[in-house]
Amino acid sequence: MNAPPLPDHRDSREVVIVGAGQAGLSLSHALRQRGIDHLVLEKHTPMHVWREQRWDSFCLVTPNWQCRLPGWEYTGPDPHGFMTKEQLLPWLDGFVRHVDAPLRCGVEVTRVAAARRGGFDLATSAGPLHAAQVVVASGGYHRPIVPRLAERLPADVLQLHSAQYRHPAALPPGRVLVVGNGQSGAQIAEDLHLAGREVVLACGSAPRCARFYRGRDVVDWLADMGYYDMAVQDHPLREGVRDNTNHYVTGRDGGRDIDLRRFAREGMQLYGTLEGLEGTRLRFAPTLRESLDNADRVYNGINASIDQHIARLGLAAPPPTVYEPVWQPEAERTALDLREAGISAVVWCIGFHPGFEWVDLPVFNGRGQPGHLRGVSAVPGLYFLGLPWLHTWGSGRFSGIARDALFLAEQIQARAAGRAAAASRRAADAAVDIATA
């Protein structure tokens, strides 16, 4: 970006936090405890994504006991259950009230740039602003990904991104094509399938995991084994783990596995990766068998690591099991005609692009992702919070936000103290100069 520098102005804060989701508000809570001047700017309303970009039957895929925001933990009667959207939203609204952040809603930040006088200049829809430090807490999922071939689909085929999907009855009669089988794709396909809709699912390479294994939720086992505390630099993939697709599983109806093979046995049509469109004919890669096998390999691999943990500690638990496929594709199907199949709607579940163009500072890699260490960027005073694998696997979950926010609050406090000490030294030196003049 080569926009001219923003003008100097008087409205200045020590810290500006951009985004009032669980990350931004968690940091606000930590800064307020430290008495650090700050302002939270939110383009929409607090927790907007949870309210506006989740379907009606949405529920958490991690158990309620992991809902541990700063000073606001889940205290309901079902710690090992999974809050539905109707239950989650009041809990999040309670956190908003609990934090009582210095918040301005309906304010969009359109640019953050280095200021001539130090710190950062922000251009916002409410006017210019200066901050000594800035925290980008707007998440990492900004622009829904929809492939260019979508432009060539017949006009009478309804197209939605997963962020727009609400419930099966909102789609026109006919078969529904769901593209992508990550967490959202698999759960939306299940939602449609359970409602009696005919579903065609184009599968990618998403892994899966068991909901329960050897008498406990798999999340409970993995938490005991330290998986949610593993730092990104200690992971075998290092920063590459940030590109991994989340495992698909569901907390619906008390929690269960999502087994695409069982869905296929019940009538769902599974295909490999969607590759192209010629007229009304969709083209798929012959990758279905490989995708299903890889998902099961991950599933059994996670369970095997739990087996090793149980054996190593000599824990009492039900005997181990290994998942055996309940269905196999007879052959790879590589084409489907939209008209012949009666496809009336497509739900794109292939993720989001990052949208940090408004951050006019040299901290991004070639894929538009910010470079950082535990949220601390290479530009002094610029931080990121609320990103998947910001520091650990728990960073993108309610369970890890408090730790990440506390760490950044400590960095911010130290930098503010350093700036204050430097200002005091300059003032003292100036006083000496005047006295000896």
TrEMBL record:
It comes from the Bacteria. The keyword Oxidoreductase applies. InterPro entries: Auxin_biosynth/cation_transpt, CHP04046_FMN-dependent, FAD/NAD-bd_sf. GO terms for molecular function: flavin adenine dinucleotide binding; monooxygenase activity. Keywords: Monooxygenase, Oxidoreductase. Pfam families: Pyr_redox_3 (PF13738). PANTHER family: FLAVIN-BINDING MONOOXYGENASE-LIKE PROTEIN (AFU_ORTHOLOGUE AFUA_4G09220), FLAVIN-CONTAINING MONOOXYGENASE. This is Putative monooxygenase.
